[in-house]
Each structure stands twice: as C-alpha cells, then as structure tokens.
Amino acid sequence: MTLKIRQLIKELEKAGFINRGGKGSHRNFIHPKGICITVSGKVGDDAKHYQEKEVEIKIKRSKK
C-alpha cells in the first residue's frame, strides 16, 4: 500500500526531524544530528516509492 506524503511527514517528525519550511510543495527537514531530507509533493498525494525508501533510510541513520 502506498503511503501519503502526510504520513511520511508524520514519521519524520516522530523521529525528531524538524520542518525548516521550503518553497512550493517542497519541505526541508533536518535532524539535530545534521541529517537533512527534502520531501516534495502535496500532503494528500501518494508518496513515490523512492521517497518512502529515502525516509526509511534517513530515519534509520538518525537512530544510530
């Protein structure tokens, strides 16, 4: 099942990432450990497979 962009954002915030804002449909998140990720798309859109993978990888990296 494909996740929505809003679900990816919730997962990032739950893992400690802070939304730094962005332009248009892009949102820049940063973790206190210095890990950055940009999520693009409207909150109601389906997330692309590569976006789900990247979020998963960045969350794992932030827990090390």
Question: What does the secondary structure layout of this molecule look like, with pairings?
Answer:
Layout: H1 5-14, E1 18-19, E2 26-30, E3 36-40, H2 49-62
Rg measurement, Å: 11 Å
Largest beta sheet: strand ordering:
1-2-3
Terminal Cα span: 28 Å
H and E string: HEEEH
Largest sheet: 3 strands, antiparallel
Low-confidence stretches: none
Describe the structure in brief:
The protein has 64 residues and is of the alpha+beta class. The protein has helices at residues 5-14, 49-62; strands at 18-19, 26-30, 36-40. It is 38% helix and 19% strand.
Tell me about this structure.
The protein is of the alpha+beta class and 64 residues long. It has helices spanning 5-14, 49-62; strands at 18-19, 26-30, 36-40. 38% of the residues lie in helices and 19% in strands. The chain has a three-stranded antiparallel beta sheet. The mean pLDDT is 94.
